[in-house]
Amino acid sequence: NKIWGIADDEKGNFAEIITRADKLFEQEKYEEALEAYKNANRIDPDNVHAADRVLEVHTLIKRDKNLSAEYNDLVENGDRYLEMNDFEKAKESFSEALSLKPDESYPDRKIKAINEHLEVIKNYDAAIEDADALYIEKKYDKAIVAYTNAGNIKPDEDYPGNMISRIEALFAEL
Fold it and tell me: CA-CA distance, 104 to 87, in Å (whole number)?
């Protein structure tokens, strides 16, 4: 009671295995799909669909591993650039990583943090430029306000406080 070399009880099992394997394949669960297709292929080695899918899934798994390795390298590079305060190169690395794996949140969070940091730097630099211009023009009261604003943007910077101290020393001499 065999049809094309497959026993009746195996035929039903084969159909279930192929259906399960196809669902796993559609869900991109390639490792599990591969095992299911291999099982189906053991039951019916002449089935073209199962054999073709085994080869296709092997290729997809290899592609995913290469993609993951490249992604990991880009993220590591981004982290290294951040440690060196090279924000533009870090942002570039994280952007490339995100383009490889758009659903990953880590590079997206890093890009947002870099953008926020770059915006702070831009605002601070503009505030210092304004304050320095007022200082050069000897508009000391306005310069103190401008340096105070710059210090509020980046509280860890010493320069605004040093310039305020310098202006206050000038006032003390007068």
Answer: 20
> Kindly report the CA angle at 79 between 115 and 98, in degrees rounded to 5?
65
Single out the residue of 144, 137, 67, 156 nearest to residue 104, CA to CA.
Answer: 67
Assess contact for 75 and 93: CB atoms under 8 A. yes
For residue range 96-137, what is the model confidence (pLDDT) as tens digits? 999 999 999 999 999 999 999 999 999 999 999 999 999 999
CA 147/CA 19 separation, integer angstroms: 70
Instruction: Give me the sign of the Cα torsion angle 135, 137, 138, 144.
Output: negative
CA-based nearest residue to 141, from 167, 112, 108, 110: 167
Whether the CB-CB separation of 90 and 115 falls below 8 Å is answered with no
Q: What is the model's pTM?
A: 0.64
d(CA 28, CA 38): 16
